[in-house]
Design brief:
The structure is a homodimer of 216-residue chains.
Chain A: H1 14-38, H2 41-48, H3 52-58, H4 62-77, H5 79-83, H6 90-107, H7 109-120, H8 127-150, H9 159-175, H10 177-184, H11 192-208
Helix pairs in contact in A: 1-2, 1-4, 1-7, 4-7, 6-9, 6-11, 7-9, 9-11
The first copy, chain A, binds a DNA duplex (30 and 30 nucleotides) through α1 and α3.
Chain lengths: 216, 216
DNA sequence: TGATAATTTGACCGGTTGGTAAAACATTAC
DNA sequence: GTAATGTTTTACCAACCGGTCAAATTATCA
């Protein structure tokens, strides 16, 4: 019998798991490069190597695929921020947060672009996640940073804008990759650009947040 | 007679100028929020308050509209970088570059998102501009920054990544506006966030680039 | 005013898109 | 093996999309 996908909540076949995995992988490819509205089910089906109705057997709508993808990716995307440790030393925590975010931009650019597309277009599908789990996590970590500033471990600064700055500078290398490589030219567009970026950003943030006598 | 748009290169009617203006304004709205593939001519026509065939009388294809928009906007978008002055003092030049870029993010977010969408999706329509005029301009200004570092006016750093960092942190407030406001919460989402951002970023970049004894 | 050119509109077209129906095919459990 | 269930395919549909066409309307100017 042909049961609608949503009705089979209990046991999942081996084939189901494999195919859903395959589809989400293909969907990530397509959504990341064309955005939600710019992507077609046919495209995703082709990348996944199956027919469109077959794909629709596993995910009944384009929205369902997108949502499943967002749900799966959002969680891992926030891991680096979760690891941000209140007990560690400020400089090394910030330094390794930058490094982890840069590694993600290098190793998982599609995930970064998926969110970038979504947010750029007004976050129509993930607004709740932004104002809920994401905000809570950021609030928590902002409090940590604020306490570091208060106890004189780093320069006084707005912790939210610090986090925004780390996000934007690191994700830039995933989201605006074409521009980065276009500007750097072919010679400097190898993987070395991530190490150069890491060096620069660590210097910028670490010494930008250092306490100095004349500081405000 | 119905002359194709491309054939009337000479005199332009008053109506032509007005309508083309109107259309590009509407197109900016739509392209900026949905990207090229996600936008429809009907949408743009509706925003512009005219029928689709009427719109197509002025721009014969969707591509033509997009290209006209890109051409018009790219130039003004690079103005802040052009103003970057080799003769000025490094600190005040960098500071005012940041301020100008932030003002553009605040006052012209649609223009920022237009490019962000384009670049995110692989810059299919503006690759030439990236590797041509943009790269040249950046190369020129990077040389200025490099000379400042060499003569000990600012800390040694990779000038390209410095420029990327300024671009990403400032444009973040236009491109990721929904996220920024979502995280800041309703209370802090007023226009004041741009001043907070300006304060933070100026502090970060200025003191991050200051020469210090222990510096590398 | 009337002729001429510029603008606007409604009807339409072929291709694409998200999605469906039903039957054919494969797999699993007994 | 076979019956029940799970998977895949073929054919299809209605809505939408980019774009055309010819006729209707409006502006310009002698």
């Amino acid at each position: 019998m042909v049961l609608p996908r949503a009705a089979r909540t209990q046991r999942r076949t081996r084939i189901q798991e494999e195919k859903e995995e395959l589809i989400l992988e293909a969907a990530l490819d397509v959504f990341a490069t064309h955005g939600f509205r710019g992507s077609t089910i046919d495209q995703i089906a082709e990348v996944a190597g199956m027919s469109k109705p077959n794909l629709l057997y596993y995910f009944r709508t384009k929205e369902a695929m997108h949502r499943a993808l967002i749900d799966r990716v959002l969680d891992s995307w926030l891991d680096p921020l979760r690891e941000f440790d209140a007990e560690g030393s400020p400089v090394s925590e910030i330094r390794s947060y930058i490094r982890r975010k840069l590694e993600m931009a290098r190793d998982f650019p599609r995930e970064s672009r998926l969110f970038a597309n979504e947010i750029l277009q007004g976050a129509p599908h993930i607004e709740d996640e932004l104002k809920g789990p994401l905000k809570s996590l950021v609030d928590e970590k902002a409090e940590v940073i604020r306490s570091w500033a208060k106890t004189g471990k780093i320069a006084k600064c707005d912790p939210y804008h610090l986090i925004f700055a780390i996000w934007s500078t690191t994700q830039h290398y995933a989201d605006f990759d074409v521009q980065v490589r276009g500007v750097l030219g072919d010679e400097r567009s190898g993987e070395g650009r991530f190490e150069d970026a890491a060096r620069f950003l660590e210097q910028l943030f670490v010494s930008g947040l250092e306490i100095r006598d004349g500081g405000a």
